[in-house]
Amino acid sequence: MNIKVKNLPVSEILCSNCQACCCSLEVRIISDTGVPYQHIYVDAYGNESMRRLDDGKCSALNRDTLMCSIYENRPWVCREFEMGSYECIDERNEKL
Fold this sequence. Notes:
Blueprint: E1 40-42, E2 48-50, E3 61-62, E4 67-68, H1 76-80, H2 86-95
Antiparallel strand pairs: 1-2, 3-4
């Protein structure tokens, strides 16, 4: 039995064409990486997450460059979410 495999081309994902699709995801802060307090939202139970602005995207996202303004101090989840990973591609497909 043979199964045909269909390879779908994935355009190269770079900082210059990223579109910051992941920046509208909920990002819980689970470790201390030095996220500046003005970017942290604390809920009624004391849980911390990244603050989002009225457009629904992370407050640390530079709206002009679409790059993280706190890159060296970004949360652990953001460090693990790799550009070009299957999670990244899923977000891009959903939002673009």
